[in-house]
# Entry
Amino acid sequence: MEAEFLSWLKPRLFAAPHVTLGVGDDGAIVAAAPGTSTVVAVDLLTDGVDFRLSEVDPRRVGRKALAVNLSDLAAMAARPMAAFVSLALPRRGALELAQSLYEGLLPLAEQFACPIAGGDTNTWDGSLVVSVTVLGQVGPRGGWRRDGARGGDAIVATGQFGGSILGHHFDFEPRVALALDLAERYTVHAAIDISDGLALDLSRLAEASLCGAEVDLTAVPISEAAYRHCEEHPDHCTPLDHALGDGEDFELLLAMPVVEADRLRHDPAVDVPISILGRFVEGRGLWQITAAGHRPLPAQGFQHRGS
Ligand SMILES: [Mg+2]
# Structure
């Protein structure tokens, strides 16, 4: 099956000058530009855990497997260089499934100029597992990290939050272009992409930076999907709860000096919604600022996945 799959795949791959040797040898050769560093990110998606193949078009799964990695590169302000795709396929219909996964993945790879430079494909008795590894490049100033926020920095978020389960978690646009633009034109002290929930990933960034965070809950941008999710599944959760706790928004959370955050919010060249959610503070913990006062904010979210 693998030989047949590779002969299907090879004509569909595109080249890039820095990938000196791509699919077909024992390994790939990727040329790094002088003075740069390479960021490596990996993500693993498993049928029954991260998606249900019985309910979703495998092309969307393939797209997502690459997109979550591109989001990690965005969080580090790294330019995508190459991706490596490993598939463990259920034996029945393996070839067709592999092709469908790639039909979703390849257009995104091309859109982000991230060539597929290798990987591995096996069949087994289990369910589908997709693992993608990406390489990204950061310049001499280095990329963003989680541990650079300082007390007094603004908490800046891109996009809107909540209800991603209604479709956004498959169809989101990784914030790579925005991240590369901001890395060039703005001072960003720390960054993370929001994979497991706004409150949880904010707490991770704050903890890594040895500081706390105060969130103005009225400033949290709530997506239309969060409202729709509440209407369709009435429970005790509010749209704000979904915005704070749902995972897989794949937006960026940044720590920036307040003047830089204000400049960004009014930047006509940035077409992604930008919100200032509050500020990082000396001390530890996650706090909510409401009309009622200053209270702990639970770092809720999904914790079963890695970064
Ligand atoms: Mg991440």
The longest helix spans residues 58-75. The mean pLDDT is 94.
